[in-house]
């Protein structure tokens, strides 16, 4: 059983008041015989984008003032004043941001002046809590009475609401039903600061068929949703099982750890400008697997460790942006482009990378990636087995750095003309047959 200090209340009409003592005296020390006392019994009841406050009446008070801040303690004053002249003993604070914690104090006012502050309360609108250790699905889903399973929380959360998940292992044995499928706009949040992998990890482990696709997933992305702060995967290596499955929607998958021996981390396909960022991938076959994505989703600032192909672009209509990732390990290719025109920029293929077919490989004639500003520190840089990649032109230099490649920087195995102007090679100018190898009658402009 965890020990919690204070009370936190939750979302969508579940009323559990909460209070923290922060000290009194926010009225600047005014004292006279008619000065009212501070309000007592202040309670905060959050719901969707709203927190309802209620307190006990103060003898002699003619009105009340409400103060709010997003940090504690609340310092009553003009900067934190929400409203004044409230004649009732309640107030509804609306238009709030779901998932943000708000702190409140209330003062009583009469002709003699303003009272000291009430005790401070705090609440988070639009949030359900899940605790796989001490929660129960018969609870209200508040911080002090959390649900037990993510599955149950997903069944009650609506668009714009948050589900905050406390450390535990969330699997079928606990009662989870896979794949987990958030509703439109629901934010599923674990321990973002530690990518779910802190001293007390937040693990989602399971596998389930994504209806009608033949693919398996742990979590299915929803439009407008966010999946962040988890260790995600399964104990099997089932083929075409992905930790997060994003199809035809715009979802953010951020600050997660995708565990081995899971087959793949994230699958992207269809319309939508999804973002996959700040994750660590330890999966077996693929990190991010990209089918046709016409709306330029972004894969950025991720760390990919040893796996067969960290990023595989297989869709014929693919405009994915792949930027600022670090790719390491040994496998087939760091980034493989089978089709499409992805933009590959500012990525690092570090010294541990010994990919057989290069840091970047183009595999089919319709592969036309744009490479700018990448740093190759691996055994083999770029391998062109087919297609027409753009590695730099006279008007838009590539600025790719091959200077630390230990083998061949660019291997051109296709009968095409490829431009690779404005890059840095181990030798300056690059030596044909050493830094650049051309076969199959192709042409490389450098």
Q: What best-fitting shape do the alpha-carbon axes yield?
A: elongated
Strand tally is 40
- The domain tally reads 2
Q: Compute the number of helices.
A: 1
Task: Characterize the structure shown.
- The protein is an all-beta fold and 446 residues long.
- The protein folds into 2 domains: 1-125, Immunoglobulin-like (Sandwich), CATH 2.60.40; 127-445, Pectate Lyase C-like, CATH 2.160.20.
- 2% of the residues lie in helices and 33% in strands.
- The protein contains 1 helix and 40 strands.
- The protein has an 11-stranded mixed β-sheet, with no helix packed on it.
- Strand 6 and strand 7 form a beta hairpin.
- The chain is elongated, with a radius of gyration of 28 Å.
- The termini are far apart.
- The model is unreliable at 1-31 (pLDDT under 50).
Features:
Pectate Lyase C-like, 446 residues
Give me a quick take on this structure.
This protein is mainly β and 446 residues long. Helix content is 2%, strand content 33%. Mean pLDDT is 91; it is low at 1-31.
Topology:
Layout: E1 43-47, E2 50-54, E3 63-69, E4 81-86, E5 90-94, E6 102-110, E7 113-114, E8 121-123, E9 127-130, H1 150-156, E10 162-165, E11 168-170, E12 187-189, E13 202-205, E14 208-209, E15 216-220, E16 226-228, E17 231-233, E18 241-247, E19 252-254, E20 257-258, E21 264-269, E22 275-277, E23 280-281, E24 286-290, E25 298-300, E26 303-304, E27 309-313, E28 321-323, E29 326-327, E30 335-337, E31 343-345, E32 348-349, E33 360-362, E34 370-372, E35 375-376, E36 382-384, E37 410-412, E38 417-419, E39 436-438, E40 443-445
Parallel strand pairs: 9-10, 10-12, 11-13, 12-16, 13-17, 15-18, 16-19, 17-20, 18-21, 19-22, 20-23, 21-24, 22-25, 23-26, 24-27, 25-28, 26-29, 27-30, 28-31, 29-32, 30-33, 31-34, 32-35, 33-36, 36-37, 37-39, 38-40
Antiparallel strand pairs: 1-2, 2-5, 3-4, 3-6, 6-7, 6-8, 14-15
């Amino acid at each position: 059983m965890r020990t919690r200090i204070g009370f936190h209340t939750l979302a969508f009409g579940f009323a559990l008041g909460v209070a923290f003592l922060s000290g009194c005296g926010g009225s600047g020390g005014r004292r006279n015989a008619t000065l009212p006392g501070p309000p007592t019994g202040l309670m905060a009841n959050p719901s969707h984008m709203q927190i309802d406050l209620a307190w006990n009446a103060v003898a002699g008070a003619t009105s009340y003032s409400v103060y709010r801040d997003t940090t504690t303690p609340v310092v009553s004053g003009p900067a934190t004043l929400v409203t004044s002249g409230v004649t009732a003993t309640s107030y509804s604070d609306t238009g709030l941001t779901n998932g943000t914690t708000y702190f409140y104090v209330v003062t009583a006012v009469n002709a003699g002046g303003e009272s000291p502050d009430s005790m401070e309360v705090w609440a988070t609108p639009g949030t359900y809590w899940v605790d796989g250790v001490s929660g129960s699905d018969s609870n209200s889903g508040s911080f002090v009475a959390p649900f037990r399973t993510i599955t149950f929380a997903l069944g009650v959360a609506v668009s714009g609401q948050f589900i905050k998940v406390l450390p535990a292992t969330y699997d079928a044995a606990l009662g989870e039903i896979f794949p987990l499928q958030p509703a439109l706009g629901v934010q599923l949040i674990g321990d973002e600061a530690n990518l779910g992998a802190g001293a007390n990890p937040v693990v989602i482990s399971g596998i389930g068929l994504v209806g009608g696709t033949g693919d398996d997933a742990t979590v299915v992305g929803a439009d407008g949703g966010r999946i962040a702060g988890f260790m995600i995967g399964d104990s099997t290596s089932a083929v075409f099982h992905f930790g997060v499955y994003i199809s035809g929607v715009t979802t953010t998958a951020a600050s997660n750890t995708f565990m081995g021996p899971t087959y793949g981390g994230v699958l992207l396909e269809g319309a939508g400008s999804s973002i996959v960022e700040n994750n660590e991938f330890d999966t077996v076959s693929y990190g991010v697997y990209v089918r046709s994505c016409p709306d330029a989703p972004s894969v950025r600032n991720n760390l990919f460790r040893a796996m067969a192909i960290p990023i595989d672009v297989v869709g014929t209509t693919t405009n994915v942006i792949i930027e600022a990732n670090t790719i390491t390990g040994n496998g087939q290719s760091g980034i493989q482009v089978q089709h499409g025109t992805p933009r590959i920029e500012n990525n690092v293929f570090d010294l541990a990378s010994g990919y057989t077919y290069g840091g970047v490989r183009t595999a089919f004639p319709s592969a036309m990636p744009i490479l700018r500003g990448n740093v190759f520190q691996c055994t083999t840089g770029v391998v062109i087995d087919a297609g027409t990649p753009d590695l730099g032109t006279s008007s838009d230099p590539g600025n790719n750095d091959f200077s630390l490649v230990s083998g061949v920087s660019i291997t051109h195995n296709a009968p095409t003309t490829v431009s690779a102007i404005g890059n840095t090679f181990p030798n300056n100018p690059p030596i044909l047959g050493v830094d650049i190898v051309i076969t199959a009658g192709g042409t490389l402009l450098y």
